[in-house]
Every structure is written in C-alpha cells, then in structure tokens.
Design goal:
The chain is α+β, with helices and mostly antiparallel strands. Helix content is 50%, strand content 15%. The strands form 3 sheets. It has a 4-stranded mixed β-sheet with strand order 1-4-5-8. It has a 4-stranded antiparallel β-sheet with strand order 2-3-7-6, with no helix packed on it. Strands 9-10 form a two-stranded antiparallel sheet. The longest helix has 37 residues. The radius of gyration is 21 Å and the shape is globular. The two termini are 41 Å apart. Flavin-adenine dinucleotide binds next to strand 1, strand 3, helix 11 and helix 12.
Length: 377
C-alpha cells in the first residue's frame, strides 16, 4: 500500500506543493490521481464503491502522502474523502449510503465538515446555527468558521442546533447532523487568510435561509453530537498519522542537508549538536507511530480507543512539529527560505496541534477519563 501511494505521490514533488502553497490553488491534479487509482474510497464499504479497508490502512496511506512532501496540503485535500463520511456509513440509511458514499469514493464530489463556530470554539454545546423543521425541509441559518475545503466542496456534513439549548438535558443534546448540498445561493463562503496550507482553503461560512431536505438528516433529530463523536477517534488517528508523515519529510530533508552543508571544513551533521536533536525527532516520530498503530488497531477491532486515539493525536502532532522546527534550525538561514521547503512544513505542522482539538483539551481528557481526576472544564 505504501509503495503504491508513494508511486503516485512521486509525481507531485516538493516544487508542485510549493507552487500550490504560493498560488493557493487546490491540488486538483493530485486529487484526481488518487481518485483514478481508487484511493479516495479506501475506508468506504465495497458495496458503495470503496475498498472497505480499516483505519489502520488509511493511517498508512495518509502518513505516506504527508511524508512524500505533500504534507498537510496533500493530506487535507483528501482527508474528508477518506473518513469524513463515517457518520453516514455508520448511521445513514441504506438509501442515504447509496446516494452519498459512491461519489465521495470515486472523487466525483468533494465535501467539507462544518462544526466550528466563532462563539463556541471547543465547546460544541454552544453551537448556535439553527435548523428549523418546515414540513419536508429544514431551514438553516447561522455561521460557521474555519471550514476547510468549503471553496471547492459540493457537499457539507454540518452540525446544527435543532432544539434550543434551554430545552435539552445537556448542551450537546439537541444538535442534528445533515449531509447536504453546499448551495452557494444561500451559503456565502469567505476564505480566511491564514498561516500555511494555502492550497487547501479554510473559511467563514454565512448561512442564510438554506433549505435542507429532511432526507439529508443523518440519524435521528437532536442526536447529531453522538454521531460525530463516533467519527472523532478515527479522525484523530488520521491527523496523527499525517503529522508524523510531515515530520518525517522534514527529518529527511534535515538529514540530507546536514550531510551536505560544510561549515568549519566539515559537514554540519558531524556535530553532535546537529545529530542529537535529529535522532531525538526520529525516536519520537517512531514512538508516536506505535501509538497510532495501537489506536487504529483498537478502532478496527471495535475496542474502545479514546485514550489511545487522543494520545496518538497529541504525540503525533507534537513530534511532527518538533521535527519540522528542528529541520528549520538544521538548515540555519536557508531553513527560512521557501526554496528548502522546511519553512512550509513548519507552518503546516501547527495545524494538527490546533485542530481538530487542542493539546490542552487532550490533556484534560486523559486526566479525567484515564486518571480519574475531576473534570476541569
Ligand atoms: C487550519 C484549520 C483548519 C480547520 N478546519 C476545520 C474544519 O474543516 N471544520 C471545522 O469544523 N473546524 C475546523 N477547524 C477548527 C478547529 O477544529 C478549531 O480551531 C479547534 O477546535 C479549536 O477551537 P478554537 O479555535 O475556537 O479554540 P478555543 O475553543 O477558542 O480555544 C482557544 C485556546 O484555549 C484553550 N482552552 C479552552 N478551554 C480550555 C480549558 N478549559 N482548559 C485549558 N485550555 C483551554 C484551548 O486549548 C486553545 O488553546 C480548523 C482550524 C484550523 C486552524
């Protein structure tokens, strides 16, 4: 699997990704190449046009993509196809699966995932975007933020409030999940000028009178949060794998440069002060990968994987970031030049640290759920 994905990625070298980062255009050719060889449906059931493989396989694929130098520009371009529609696969009706999954597996449609809102942040129970039932449709009004790929998406998986927070037992009740057309007559998508990964947009979304057919609701009304919770662990595992891949791309460049760059009449890589941080990064990336493997195996076996998935995301993101930062420092001044690519990696390595959940909230989760400490937030 690694070899096959590597072969496709080899057609899209670092210069391709630098160009996409500079011009901010979606990496359509790369997306098409993976679609053509059937990779976008890797986790989607064979009944709906996919390969029916597990998260363990998808993690290898995503790690390989990122490690090729595609980093998060490449990984985020296809991330949603790989596991994003998991709530549809698990909670959708047969008719919904038949309608929604094949175009995503074939790469004929792109989708975005719209959860975050500016006033809610990590506190999902505070979501305010409303969907009101009117016969056979829901009328949706509100705003989302940070929604990746919304510039190019045909569809969106969106979490909105269907019952006011005052009327539910706990704030995360009363939310519903829809997979529906991103109808630009009623949804304004405004790109956020951001630090990195310019090839894959992130956006503000303003939703005004969007009519969503009731048949686009996934599962029962008011239970949407439960459904997205199910997909959160695999998403964390994949993000961790992507971060590790990016760290490995950085480490590869750093080690090559350290062998070639001669200062004080010897390669800089002959100095332990250059060697040791790189060796440390290698070990941390390897260790994080083992946690990814454990979490992915647990998920694929149907064993609860919350602690391992969260730990994998934390460790993978931190190890990836450290490798990128170390790679820039190994390059000295040249690390700051776009031509050497590691500055782009460093900018991208911030994403898995922040999203989809912050390191602080993962520490809170482990403290509470694993160590039995009082809930702190
Ligand atoms: C590049 C990018 C792409 C994204 N793509 C998507 C997407 O496609 N779809 C989507 O829905 N969202 C997306 N997001 C949003 C992302 O999931 C959120 O940014 C993330 O969940 C954090 O939310 P926030 O930014 O509102 O942080 P906040 O909730 O405002 O938190 C800010 C800081 O405070 C800390 N904090 C808050 N409460 C506590 C506490 N009790 N204890 C300790 N620390 C605390 C947090 O850890 C964090 O460091 C994306 C974000 C980025 C940057």
């Amino acid at each position: 699997m690694r070899d096959a994905v590597k072969k496709i990625c080899a057609r899209f070298g670092d210069d391709y990704w630098l160009k996409r980062d500079n011009d901010g255009r979606f990496p359509e050719a790369f997306y098409r190449a993976l679609a053509a060889d059937g990779w976008l449906g890797v986790c989607i059931s064979q009944d709906f046009g996919g390969s029916g493989l597990g998260v363990s396989d998808a993690a290898i694929m995503m790690e390989t993509i990122a490690a090729s130098g595609a980093g998060f520009s490449g990984a985020s371009a296809v991330h949603m196809n790989i596991f994003g529609l998991n709530p549809v696969a698990v909670y959708g009706t047969e008719a919904q699966k038949k309608r929604m999954l094949p175009p995503i597996a074939a790469g004929k449609e792109k989708a975005c995932f719209a959860v975050t809102e500016s006033n809610a942040g990590l506190e999902t129970g505070k979501l305010q975007t409303r969907a009101e039932r009117r016969g056979d449709i829901y009328l949706v009004n509100g705003a989302k933020i940070w929604i990746s790929t919304a510039q190019v998406a045909d569809k969106m998986l969106i979490l909105v409030r269907t019952t006011p927070v005052e009327k539910v037992r706990k704030p995360t009740d009363g939310l519903s999940l829809f997979y529906t057309a991103l109808d630009r007559r009623h949804v304004e998508v405004r790109a956020i000028d951001k630090m990195g990964r310019h090839a894959v947009d992130s956006n503000q979304m303003f939703i005004d009178g969007l009519q969503v057919p009731a048949e686009d609701r996934i599962g029962e009304e008011d239970r949407g949060f439960e459904y997205i919770l199910h997909g959160m662990n695999p998403e964390r595992i994949l993000i961790a794998a992507e971060a590790i891949g990016l760290g490995r791309a950085a480490l590869r460049r750093a080690a090559t440069y350290a062998k070639e760059r001669v200062v004080f009449d010897r390669p800089i890589g002959k100095n332990q002060a250059i060697q040791h941080p790189l060796a440390e990064c290698w070990m941390e990336l390897e260790a994080a990968e083992l946690m990814v493997r454990k979490a992915a195996w647990q998920y694929d076996q149907g064993i609860p994987c919350g602690p391992a998935a969260n730990a994998a995301k934390y460790l993978g993101a931190e190890a990836g970031f450290k490798a990128c930062q170390t790679a820039v420092m190994t390059h000295g001044g040249y690390g700051y030049a776009k031509e050497y690519h590691v500055e782009r990696y460093l900018r991208e390595s911030m994403i898995p640290r922040i999203a989809p959940v912050s390191p602080q909230l993962i520490l809170c989760f482990i403290a509470e759920k694993v160590l039995g400490l009082p809930k702190s937030y």
